[in-house]
Every structure is written in structure tokens, then in C-alpha cells.
Amino acid sequence: MASFQEKVLLIVSRIKKGQVLTYKQVAQLAGNPNAFRAVGNILSKNYNPKIPCHRVIRSDGAIGGYNRGEKKKIFLLKKEKAI
DNA sequence: CATTTGACGCCAA
DNA sequence: TTTGGCGCCAAAT
Predict the structure, then answer these.
(1) How confident is the model at residue A82 (pLDDT cuts 50, 70, 90)?
(2) Long-range pairs of A75-78 with CB within 8 A, sequence gap ≥ 24
(3) Can you give the distance from the CA of residue A41 to the C1' of nucleotide B8 in angstroms?
(4) A56 annotated active-site
(5) Sequence ranges of the domains in chain A
């Protein structure tokens, strides 16, 4: 069985272009609807470019953060019309 | 086992 | 609408 972080990474990697999920949604898909905290923590430590972590945002619509610059994340989201 | 950290979520004021 | 405060969980120490 994959670790919680492996599930999260897999789910995030499956996000298609133009699609966006919230940390809570990712946590729910990972099996723990209340582990949204851990989700953010995992993504922050993950520097794998294969993971479109910029497609994961907060429930409020805020970007949250990005390991390569929040501006980049905002730009990508606006460009893809994911938000 | 106890604490700390962190890209969160929700509610009250 | 904006803050502050509390609760939540996984991994690291």
C-alpha cells in the first residue's frame, strides 16, 4: 500500500489541464478528508516537476503557495483558466 | 512516545 | 470583508 504522500502525489499528477482541485479534495481522494494539512505539507516538500502542484489551491480560491514562486502558479492558473 | 512544522479549513467577532 | 484563533493530519526530530 502506498504511503499517504504517494497517494497524494499520484492524485495530483492525474490532474488534467484546466482542472483544479483544492487541498481538501485531494485529501479526500487520498482517503483522509481531514488530512488537508498533510497534503500541503507533502506538496511543499515535493519538488518533482512531474507533479502539477500548481493545480492544487485552497478552498477559498487562494493559491496557497508554490515551491517555484507563487507568481508562476498564479500565472499558470489564470492562463489555463483553472481559476 | 512527545513536539514541532506546514502550500489548510472553518467559524466567530 | 478581514483577522484571529482553534482543530485537523502526516512526517521529521
Answers:
(1) very low
(2) A77/A20
(3) 9
(4) no
(5) 4-79
pLDDT bin (cut points 50, 70, 90) of residue A1 is confident
CA atom of A50 to C1′ atom of B12, Å: 41
- Which CATH code of 3.40.50.1240, 3.90.830.10, 1.10.357.20, 1.10.10.10 fits the domain covering A4-79? 1.10.10.10
Distance between CA atoms of A60 and A81, rounded to whole angstroms? 16
Name the nt closest to A37 by C-alpha to C1'.
Answer: B8
* A22 within 8 A of A57, measured Cβ to Cβ: yes
pLDDT, tens digit (0-9, with 9 covering 90-100), for A24-52? 999 999 999 999 999 999 999 999 999 99
pLDDT of A81 reads 53
